[in-house]
Amino acid sequence: MLNFYRDEYGKWYINNMLTTPYPATIFIDSDNIVHISPLTGNIQSFECHISDIVDKNGDAYADYNDLISHVGDFFADALVRGGCPRTIYKATEKTEIADVDEHSLFNSSYSGVGRIIPSNSLRVGSVIYVKMNGLFTTLTGGSSTNKILLGDTQLETSSVTYLNNRTNYYIENEIIATVRSVGVNGSIIYQGRDLVQSSDTQYTLAMLPRKTLVPITIDTTVDNLFDMTFKWNTLGGSLVVSNAIIQIL
């Protein structure tokens, strides 16, 4: 028997075990056996007869359409539930930028399910947490334009001028974005920082704050790609991002 439900705290249980849900395929075969197969993540597949599908309240699901609706809600909830943080992106290779084209700071080689946040997967209070670090392996002055984007919405753009004649200077970016409302006219608010080593003294850093004072409108009913981009306005050196993660909390 397959038993699944969401408790009063919004956490999902499947066969009485707390679990973080993941995108999945679901189908019923000619013998009325239901197959649920997660596409990613550490969660087992399930097979059972359609008559054995129940929730904790003991309400039987009379037909396959009801089943799709309920189990679909379970797996669509993958990116949110409190107490179940989910890492959706981890860079497995460095990203190096040493030309004047605009580049994503995220490498195309990664583990996880990627940077696309699926439609209708965010809830009020969902947090998108982003952290990355690396080095300016060389700095010869110059300036850059930096952007934060969520889907077609540009959350922020900024320009920074850098020091001259520097080698292997540490950098760190951190963003915390919280969903305030959902839907076509949903909204998100964020703060964060960029840190750049500003001298050869070990602990001296320059900080560029990233912030919005009022929520920004974002459509949560569509797939949204999270991105941070960097572009040398005039070539000022080589930027290497060594580590990067994105989590949904």
What can you tell me about this protein's structure?
The chain is mainly beta. It folds into two domains: 2-76, no CATH class; 86-248, Jelly Rolls (Sandwich). Helices cover 5% and strands 55% of the residues. It is built from one helix and 21 strands. Strands 8, 9, 11, 13, 16, 17, 18, 19 and 21 form a nine-stranded antiparallel beta sheet that branches. Strands 10, 12, 14, 15 and 20 form a five-stranded antiparallel beta sheet that branches. A hairpin with a 7-residue loop joins strand 5 (33-38) and strand 6. The longest helix is centred in the N-terminal third of the chain and has 13 residues, at 64-76.
Concise account of the structure shown:
The protein has 249 residues and is mainly beta. It has two domains: 2-76, no CATH class; 86-248, Jelly Rolls (Sandwich), CATH 2.60.120. The chain contains one helix and 21 strands.
What would the keywords be for this entry?
mainly beta; nine-stranded antiparallel sheet; 1 helix; 249 residues; elongated
Structural class: mainly beta
State the total count of DSSP E strands.
21
The average pLDDT value, as a whole number, equals 79
Largest sheet: 9 strands, antiparallel
Kindly give the count of domains.
Answer: 2
In helices, the fraction of residues equals under 10%
Q: In angstroms, what separates the terminal alpha carbons?
A: 30 Å
Strand content: over 45%
Low-pLDDT runs of 5+ residues are 55-64, 75-85
Shape-level CATH architecture of the largest domain? Sandwich
Q: Could you please say which CATH topology of the largest domain applies here?
A: Jelly Rolls
Radius of gyration: 22 Å
Q: How many helix segments? A: 1
